[in-house]
Amino acid sequence: MASNLDHFFSALADPTRRAVIARLTSGPASVSELHAPHDMALPSFLKHLGKLESAGMVRSLKIGRVRMVHIEAVPMAEAEDWLKTQRRIWEGRLDRLSALAEHLERNGDHG
Amino acid sequence: MASNLDHFFSALADPTRRAVIARLTSGPASVSELHAPHDMALPSFLKHLGKLESAGMVRSLKIGRVRMVHIEAVPMAEAEDWLKTQRRIWEGRLDRLSALAEHLERNGDHG
């Protein structure tokens, strides 16, 4: 049972796709603008774009002859939220461990 | 040129591996404890653990007959930071757009 998070994280597990996302956070761009900085044949680049699009992380729209691509914020936020939740539990645990260490240290002083 | 982020995001692109990470944020666990909630043969489960370990997201240590697994916080933080950076740029852009919209609206009122 593949969830959305599977697709989001899988889409982000590639430097070309992360570069496209990083570019699109500054605003929409055409496919040729997005492709330009990458030393890669267009068909390969389009496969990366397709993976981002099928993960729901970007959307594209043909305006005349130009295909414009824009980012979808929700999947990025969902992936970030998952990581943030794990970090909070983890940090809570570290806080409890450090409180325990302090407690043991104080008791050591008095013992 | 595969970066650490490739491995981190790829490791997180699977529900079993995310469940293991979520369990380990509450503290270390043995391989059998980690395996128990998953309806999956042990060899398949060990492959998932291996992927997390080779991505540097967990470490394991054999204590007597028991292999204990614990989480590594840094990779999680790096993955979260990357997403947070993108969100900040994105939100900055939305703020600028909304400031522009307000400006245009005010000018419309006076025009």
UniProtKB/TrEMBL annotation, chains A, B:
Any one GO MF annotation of this record: DNA-binding transcription factor activity
Residue ranges of domain HTH arsR-type in the record: 1-91
Domain of life: Bacteria
InterPro entries on file: ArsR-like_HTH, HTH_ArsR_DNA-bd_dom, WH-like_DNA-bd_sf, WH_DNA-bd_sf
Record protein name field: HTH-type transcriptional regulator
Species of origin: Roseisalinus antarcticus
Phylogenetic classification of the source organism: Bacteria, Pseudomonadati, Pseudomonadota, Alphaproteobacteria, Rhodobacterales
